[in-house]
Specification:
Chain A: This is Heme ABC transporter ATP-binding protein. Chain A: Keywords: ATP-binding, Cell membrane, Membrane, Nucleotide-binding, Repeat, Translocase, Transport. The complex is a heterodimer of chains A (520) and B (568). Chain A is an alpha/beta fold. Helix content of chain A is 31%, strand content 25%. A six-stranded mixed β-sheet of chain A has the order 6-7-8-3-9-10, with helices on both faces. Chain A has a six-stranded mixed β-sheet with strand order 16-17-18-13-19-20, with helices on both faces. With 568 residues, chain B is α+β, with helices and mostly antiparallel strands. Chain B is built from 21 helices and ten strands. The two termini of chain B are 33 Å apart. In chain B, 43% of the residues are buried. About 13% of the residues of chain B have low confidence. The chains are: A alpha/beta (520), B alpha+beta (568). At the A-B interface, helix 10 and helix 11 of A face helix 15 and helix 16 of B.
């Protein structure tokens, strides 16, 4: 019995075939993984299912009845709910208000808030989706906001819920909670389509997996019959290695020395409480930690975008002559052969409305050959630079004139990396290098980082992916509540060990500290 | 039922794509124009005639399309009445039976006397019935009644005057400002005549201006076609469609108030392109809008919405007026110096808003609005200070020296070299924004300040700098008005340019080169609209409706994009 089947769906945009004869069936009361690289056609397929797009060919069946959706309204009526990667919530309103928005209980002009609140409480109780119905969306964490999105679909009577990369924005703990919720929903008779890049999660929670590649269905398999490597191979179309091949580090002299660094966050709270570390040339130093423990602020301070409240940062040249860059502007930081791959490429790393070729020269534009002494831009140099970088970094963008926002996550990240590496850095800050990046590109990026290390660059790596940290780094520091708790060699690290340290449990005070609910 | 409608809708859209629909629309429009041309202007207008019981004096005036008049007055053969008629209907000031102003007097078959005369220019018809040429335009006339003050009371009671007008067929509307006169226009006694001393009669002419409209429609069609073929021209489509929709909407409004849209649009075109003076007027109106449009566009590229162009222009104008009067230099130094002073004054004034933003995070919309009021009051005070104020009752500054005057292009028209400066400024701003590192960084700050900061741009500096340049541009607009047009500063002459600049910039999506064309369009609407108001009596506010609709559709560009089925 299928809750949903989409048969022979095709959709073309101008000259691109986004979906080519895709067939996708989901058994009732299961969690169905939908995987594929960015741009494979998953989003198009789901937008067709949700009535946002009209298929050129093909039929949709809900249960065994054919369905035709002219808009999300029709899809919602047919019992389909969608939780987008970017939440569609109104910040200043409460949880309850957001859930009932658009289909409010109560007659006529008046809103029966009490009834609505009771209903929301009951709903969240039933599915174990604990949220405070009166909390403002602004004040709750990303994980809780996601629960609100799920509650919203349940409130509208969804029996089939599509979760579009729900774990990309969550901390490891929140991911665990979400998987539990999904399990509970399944037990309650809800059918879930789960879209994710994280194959481990897909393998863990789903019953079936459908792989899409380049607009075509590659196959649907029961999850127990396939392993992660096989899924990856189906997605990419070739063998993918998750293991990073690297030689032991040939660490040289100290390149950067951070000592006693202190800083305040945007809320005015002290978020760095004396962080100290050194990184040598040809070494990857990674910082692991649950998000919100000071990593972002540390990156901002090192990159020159946040003024430190104490401590200092020193860079050393080959003769060990120190340059103090504490509190320097980003401009001066880059002038000292530092490059920075920021954690949020949409906010910092890219000008989304600039073309790819312009994005490849932001922060380099004032230097020759891109401009002359009078500040007049040399577009020829920009074009040839773009052509070269697109070639060497395999940036798939069609044309260098296209806006960065139209690129897939992986290609966007390649643009950032290409630009930062062209600064010829001796020290590079790399944050979340593979967040929202598809598998093929992850492999490429990891290889680049190791190449960089082997060429003698000092690297600071911050990532939420513990496997990435352990694979890529030579030494790992764990940050908790603004302090570096412990530094260890990567070969001594394991996910379990790091996981404990990340929530503040050190060897000295076992079971003592707890990861405070920072959003409470 | 709804399903069927939806099916119908989708069939229509699938069967006829947008291009076909657009083409169809143009064919229809062309057909309507052709029909209108064939049928010709229908207004065979003439003043109504009424019969009076005892007609002693009959006045027939034939007004020609060129603005002249032939008048015939028929009276009984009575020396007193003939004398009266001569005085009243041909003008006492003109010596009779001599030279050009000869009044022919002949006897009719019925034994009455006929007095007749041609006036080359209707303005000459002094006396009781005056046809005045409009001060600015030849095509509108005012027929004025004047009082026969020295009229024989005895005769006045007995006399009955009958008027007849023969008007050229292009007169489409006769408007009288006194209702009682309207009622009795055909015939009334001399007494009533005297009572209606100040009644005005306006004659409105129709312009057979289907030509320019058809031309414009053809150009529009060509551009649409080009954009359909080559996607690169997409960016022109949205403003053009917004303009087209605005004109169609205005046409509907004109129809609704009972006037002819073609006559109105014809008048607008004639007012802006009808003569050399008209075209110069249009460019003169456009010049300050180029400056203020650039000011808004430049700030917008840095993500700043500068609403203070209004006061920045005034500050620039005041600075130009003061420096233009107080410095005594050779024009080669004086002119650049005055321009520089205006730009600097306005630039620094605008920088206050930039500084408030980068230092205290006060939104520039708030601060520039507040600074507008501060400037109004401050300049209103300064203009009264003895050191600046011209002697006399008017609150205005002393006239600038001739060495600071921007030379006009043509004799007797104020259009001056400021226009060249405006166009150069637009090109310079385009170059600055798109061909220099500073512009690159400004645009980066405008789109995403966080990313710009990350890439090493000093965001605060850029904000202050952009506000400075934006204000300086508005200040240049003030300098042009003072140095080229008004030659002095007062509190009323500089109103409106700054706010129009917002619309000018919005229309072309803040593109500096586009601002030139956008300002020309607004200049066209302004001069054409004023002309239309004078010529056919349609209120000038109609032009504001057109501007408002254009801006609405530019701001709501999603609607237009949907109409055109454009992808983001």
């Amino acid at each position: 019995m299928h809750a949903l089947s989409m048969r022979a769906i095709s959709k073309r945009f101008k000259n691109v075939v986004a979906n080519d004869n895709i067939t996708f069936s989901v058994r009732t009361n299961t969690i169905h993984g939908l995987v594929g690289e960015n741009g494979a056609g998953k989003s198009t397929l789901m937008n067709i299912l949700y009535g946002l797009l009209e298929p050129d060919e093909g039929d949709i069946f809900i249960g065994d009845r054919p369905a035709r959706f002219d808009g999300p309204k029709d899809a919602i009526e047919a019992g389909i709910g969608m939780v987008h990667q970017h939440f569609m919530l109104a910040g200043p309103l409460t949880v309850t208000e957001n859930i009932i928005l658009g289909s409010e209980p109560g007659g006529g002009l008046f809103l029966d808030y009490k009834k609505a609140r009771a209903f929301v409480s009951e709903l969240s109780e039933r599915y174990g989706l604990k949220v405070d119905p009166d909390a403002r969306i602004d004040s709750i964490s990303v994980g809780l906001a996601q629960r609100v999105e799920i509650l919203k679909t349940l409130y509208r009577g969804a029996r089939i819920i599509v979760l579009d990369e729900p774990t990309a924005v969550l901390t490891p703990q929140e991911v665990g909670d979400l998987l539990k919720i999904m399990d509970k929903l399944r037990k309650d008779g809800v059918t879930i389509v789960f879209i994710s890049h994280k194959l481990r999660e897909v393998k863990l929670i789903t019953d079936d997996i459908t792989v899409i590649r380049a607009g075509k269905t590659i196959g649907t398999r029961p999850t127990r019959d396939v392993d992660e490597n096989e899924i990856a191979r189906m997605m990419v179309g070739r063998e993918v290695s998750f293991k990073v091949d690297k030689k032991p580090a040939a660490a040289g002299e100290i390149k950067i020395s951070v000592s006693g660094l202190e800083a305040f966050n945007d809320k005015g709270l002290k978020c760095l409480k004396g962080v100290s570390f050194d990184i040598r040339r040809g070494e990857v130093f990674a910082i692991a930690g649950v998000e919100g423990n000071g990593q972002s602020e540390l990156l901002d301070v090192l990159g020159g975008m946040r003024k430190p409240a104490g401590g200092n940062v020193k860079l050393f040249d080959k003769d060990m002559k120190a340059t103090d860059i504490t509190g320097a502007s980003p401009y001066r930081v880059y002038d000292n052969k530092v490059a920075h791959i920021p954690e949020d490429r949409h906010k910092r790393g890219l000008q989304l409305k600039f073309s790819v070729k312009d994005n490849l020269v932001t922060s380099l534009i004032h230097k020759p050959p891109f401009s002359n002494a009078l500040g007049v831009i040399n577009s020829g140099a920009i074009n040839s630079n773009a052509a070269e970088k697109i070639e060497t970094f395999d940036i798939r963008c069609g044309s260098a004139e296209i806006n960065a926002q139209n690129l897939s996550g992986g290609n966007q990240q390649k643009v950032v990396i290409a630009r930062e590496l062209s600064k010829g850095p001796e020290f590079i800050i790399i944050a979340q290098p593979t967040r929202g990046v598809d598998i093929g590109a992850i492999e490429f990026i990891h290889k680049k980082i190791i190449d960089l290390r082997d060429s003698g660059v000092a690297i600071l790596l911050v990532s939420a992916e513990l496997s990435e940290i352990i694979n890529l780094s030579d030494r790992i520091g764990v940050i908790y509540n603004g302090e570096l708790l412990e530094t260890m060699e990567s070969k001594d690290a394991s996910e379990e060990k790091l996981g404990l340290l990340m929530v503040g449990i050190t060897g000295k005070n076992k079971g003592g500290a707890q990861a405070g609910d920072k959003n409470a | 039922m709804i399903k069927m409608l939806k099916m119908f809708k989708s069939t229509i859209f699938n069967k006829f794509n947008k291009l076909t629909l657009t083409a169809l629309l143009f064919v229809l429009t062309a057909a309507v124009i052709a029909a209108a041309l064939l049928l010709g202007p229908g207004g065979e207008a003439s003043a109504q005639t009424g019969a009076a019981e005892k007609i002693l004096i009959s006045v027939r005036s034939k007004i020609t399309a060129e603005g002249g008049m032939h008048r015939e007055v028929t009276v009984s053969d009575d020396a007193k009445i003939i004398e009266f008629a001569k005085n009243e209907f041909f003008g006492e000031s003109y010596p009779l039976e001599t030279g050009e102003n000869f009044v022919a007097i002949s006897k009719t078959d019925t034994g009455l006397m006929r007095l007749s005369k041609d006036f080359e220019d209707a303005e000459e018809c002094a006396g009781v019935l005056v046809v005045e040429k409009d001060l600015y335009f030849t095509t509108r006339m005012q027929i004025k009644q004047s009082v026969p003050v020295y009229f024989d009371r005895n005769l006045m009671d007995k006399a009955s005057v009958r008027f007849e007008f023969e008007l050229p067929s292009s007169v489409i509307k006769i408007q009288r400002d006194k209702k009682n006169l309207a009622r009795q226009f055909g015939a009334f006694t001399a007494n009533e005549f005297a009572l209606n001393a100040q009644a005005n009669v306006d004659l409105f002419y129709q312009f057979n201006n289907y030509g320019p409209i058809s031309l414009v429609i053809m150009i529009l069609a060509a551009v649409f076609g080009a954009a359909k073929i080559n996607r690169r021209f997409d960016f022109i489509l949205i403003p053009l469609l917004a303009i087209a929709i605005a004109f169609i909407f205005a046409g509907i409004v004109i129809l609704a108030i009972g006037e002819s849209p073609f006559a109105a649009l014809g008048a607008i075109f004639k007012g802006a392109f009808g003569s050399q003076t008209a075209a110069l007027n249009m460019l003169l109106a456009a010049t300050p809008l180029i400056f203020t449009g650039l000011a808004v566009a430049f700030a917008f590229n840095c993500g700043l919405f500068n609403i203070g162009g209004e006061s920045q222009l005034m500050v620039g104008a005041f600075a130009a007026a003061v420096c233009g009067y107080y410095l005594e230099l050779s024009p080669y130094i004086h002119i650049p110096l005055v321009i520089l002073a205006a730009a600097l004054a306005a630039g620094f004034f605008a920088s206050i808003a930039g500084w408030l933003k980068e230092r205290f995070e006060i939104h520039e919309v708030i601060s520039t609005i507040m600074l507008n009021y501060a400037a109004y009051s401050l300049l209103g005070y300064m203009v009264l200070m003895p050191c600046f104020k011209e002697s006399g009752p008017n609150p205005q500054t002393k006239e600038i020296l001739s060495s600071a005057v921007l030379a006009p292009f043509f004799h007797r028209h104020a259009l001056n070299y400021g226009l060249i400066i405006a166009i150069l400024a637009a090109v310079f701003i385009w170059f600055l924004l798109y061909r220099t590192t500073t512009g690159f960084n400004i645009r980066a700050v405008g789109l995403n300040p966080a990313a710009a900061e990350y890439s090493g741009v000093n965001v605060s500096k850029m904000i202050v700098f952009s506000m400075f340049v934006s204000g300086a541009l508005a200040g240049l607009g003030g300098a042009e008005r003072v140095m080229g047009v008004f030659h002095k500063y007062n509190s009323t002459a500089f109103v409106g340019y700054g706010f129009d600049g917002i619309a000018v910039a919005l229309l072309v999506n803040n593109n500096p080169i586009g601002v030139i064309f956008s300002a020309a369009l607004f200049g066209f609407l302004k001069t054409g609209g004023a002309f239309m108001n004078r010529e056919i009596g349609i209120p000038v506010e109609l032009v504001i409706i057109i501007q408002a609709v254009i801006i609405f559709f530019m701001a709501a560009d999603k609607i237009v994009k949907n109409l055109l089925k454009l992808k983001e």
